[in-house]
Design brief:
Blueprint (H helix, E strand, L loop, with lengths): L1 H15 L2 H22 L14 H32 L2 H5 L5 H7 L2 H19 L10 H29 L4 H13 L11 H7 L3 H14 L4 H36 L6
Helix pairs in contact: 1-5, 2-3, 2-6, 3-6, 3-7, 3-8, 3-10, 7-8, 7-10, 7-11, 10-11
């Protein structure tokens, strides 16, 4: 925990040292919300009644999850590359700190900032009329946590590819592209052809969005959300240890061929 907090403090100091960029990132949230608010005026609410009261609320939750998707898929690879460029990766791995602590702690700040951004995203939505009356916040937080674990696992696998091949991760590209197309971010999964819906069920974001929209916008209980929670839990339990094994193998390979500090 002490080492994780040290990573968090370091990344926080680095990020806040660029104060103008920090503020711009937060300010951009407002303009994104406003854009979807006006876009929602063009969409028939009946198309999303199963998930939300109107399209704006539907899309708002989708965009909040996209923030986590991008962070989960890219943060570990980005942190890894930054450490390589600064020449600190090999030094850190040479210490008695476990690989799992290094890889997880290196992205703590990004996930914390993304969580704050997602919360502000949903909060700003209330100024445009989104209501969370009766929301099941306990279930929403649980789904958030499971979503982070699922996306983080995919991100660590992506970082493993970067460790070996230096540039380009098929995991990042494939998962990101399929999630945006089939995950129900901007439109309901129900509008997809039947054969594509089968593939959408293999994506964590589909279950995350269904669960979160149900918990936040439809006030559904744990019984109704049980399917989404169970699938996300299974994905996390399977993928997280598998991702750490992949990363360890990637590091061992880089050590063997002497490319640990190359980028």
């Amino acid at each position: 925990m002490k080492k994780a907090l040290a990573f968090l403090k370091r990344d926080f100091l680095i990020e806040t040292s660029y104060r103008f960029n920090f503020l711009l990132n937060l300010l951009s949230l407002f303009f994104s919300v406003a854009a979807f608010y006006f876009l929602g005026k063009l969409v028939d609410p009946s198309q999303v009644l199963e998930y939300a009261g109107d399209y704006f609320s539907f899309a708002l939750v989708g965009m909040a999850m996209v923030l986590f998707l991008r962070t989960g898929l890219g943060s570990f690879a980005e942190s890894l590359r930054e450490e390589q460029m600064m020449g600190t990766l090999e030094a850190m791995i040479s210490t008695d700190t476990s690989l799992s602590v290094i890889v997880i702690s290196s992205s703590l700040w990004r996930f914390l900032f993304t969580s704050l951004s997602a919360f502000l995203f949903l909060l700003v939505g209330t100024f445009f009329g989104v209501s969370y009356a009766g929301a099941n916040w306990g279930a929403a937080v649980l789904i958030f946590v499971l979503t982070i674990l699922a996306y983080a696992s995919l991100g660590i696998i992506s970082a493993s590819f970067v460790m070996v091949f230096k540039r380009g991760s098929p995991v990042n590209w494939v998962v990101s592209s399929l999630s945006m197309l089939l995950g129900g971010v901007f439109y309901p999964v129900s509008v997809l052809p039947g054969w594509l819906r089968v593939f959408s069920r293999a994506l964590p974001i589909t279950w995350s969005l269904e669960g979160l929209r149900g918990a936040l916008l439809r006030a559904r209980g744990y019984g109704e959300l049980g399917g989404s929670i169970l699938v996300l839990a299974l994905i996390s339990v399977i993928l997280f240890p598998f991702s750490l094994i992949c990363f360890r193998l990637a590091v061992d390979h880089a050590r063997k061929i002497g490319s640990l500090s190359k980028y």
